[in-house]
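RECORD TYPE: inverse folding
INPUT: structure tokens
STRUCTURE:
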């Protein structure tokens, strides 16, 4: 009798345990997925590897989620970066330098390209030389890299900005202002350069004559570099992968870019632009005394903006430029 009672109690307890186990729920805490890196870029061929990397899945293959944010106007991505809407931005070095007051934690991690003829000073047909610019109205985006570019052009003939009238005009508007006669010269870049030439303007001076003065770079906020270094590293690996793919598959890449950005394939060209390889980056991220070095070029802009009032104080170039990522890639390769 005792044996039967003990057996009954044991079975009852076992049933209760089984029922409880079946009815209970197990809560598993999963690691939150990181948000994609939001990186802004604009209508400049040196930035187009962004579209290729996204469409071909190179970012994902390298282990990072990226949300490219495109705008035709090159000022919009930088403004969004300054407003902390984006984690990073592809932008001319001079533009970064002009906005350091708003982005004191900015970190340059990559040089995407160098302008080698795609930026230019366009003039009306009656202007034959840089010396003829004296007394003329020249359009450029004041307080940005274009102003320094124009300044350097004038210096080749002993002129300064005091000898001309600088007019604050964005690059995309230069063709129309030249055609109307409101300005006699204007600084712009492709594809607006070609538009102006078709409308009757001529090229007087290009960035090919100022090598290294207008590099474009990838910039991330300092907290992104600090908290997500592996994502930044993966982004750079995918960028170089996209550059290589573009070189090996130019027609397919042109189709991808045109479709992604909703632009005409015939407007896509790297003429006048030198895409920067890993080796180019290693040279750029080495301190030097010429514009081959990013440190030297950044100081040129810093000195210019400090002198002209764009910056209230000289920035710390060493803190601005982070060479660690390209150096790590060198060790891997």
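DESIGNED SEQUENCE:
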């Amino acid at each position: 009798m005792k044996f039967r009672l003990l057996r009954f109690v044991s079975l009852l307890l076992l049933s209760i345990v089984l029922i409880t186990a079946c009815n209970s729920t197990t809560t598993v805490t999963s690691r939150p997925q990181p948000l994609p890196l939001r990186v802004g870029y604009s209508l400049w061929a040196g930035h187009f590897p962004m579209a290729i990397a996204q469409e071909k899945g190179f970012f994902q293959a390298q282990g990072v989620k990226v949300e490219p944010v495109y705008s035709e106007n090159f000022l919009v991505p930088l403004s969004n970066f300054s407003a902390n809407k984006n984690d990073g931005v592809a932008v001319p070095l001079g533009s970064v330098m002009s906005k350091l007051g708003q982005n004191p934690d900015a970190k340059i991690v990559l040089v995407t390209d160098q302008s080698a003829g795609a930026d230019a000073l366009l003039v009306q047909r009656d202007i034959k030389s840089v010396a003829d610019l004296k007394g003329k109205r020249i359009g450029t985006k004041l307080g940005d890299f274009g102003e320094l570019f124009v300044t350097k052009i004038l210096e080749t003939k002993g002129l300064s900005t005091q000898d001309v009238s600088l007019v604050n005009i964005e690059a995309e508007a230069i063709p129309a202002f030249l055609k109307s006669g409101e300005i006699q010269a204007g600084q712009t870049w492709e594809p607006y350069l070609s538009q102006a030439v078709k409308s009757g303007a001529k090229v007087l001076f290009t960035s090919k004559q100022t090598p290294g003065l207008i590099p474009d770079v990838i910039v991330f906020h300092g907290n992104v570099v600090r908290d997500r270094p592996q994502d930044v590293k993966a982004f750079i690996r995918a960028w170089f992968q996209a550059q290589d793919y573009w070189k090996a598959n130019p027609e397919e890449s042109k189709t991808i870019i045109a479709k992604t950005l909703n632009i005409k394939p015939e407007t896509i060209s790297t003429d006048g632009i030198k895409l920067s390889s890993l080796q180019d980056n290693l040279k750029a991220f080495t301190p030097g005394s010429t514009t081959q070095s990013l440190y030297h070029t950044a100081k040129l802009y810093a000195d210019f903006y400090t002198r002209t009032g764009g910056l209230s104080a000289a920035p710390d170039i060493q803190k601005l430029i982070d060479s660690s990522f390209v150096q790590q890639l060198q060790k891997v390769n």
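NOTES: Residues 2-23 form the longest helix (22 residues).
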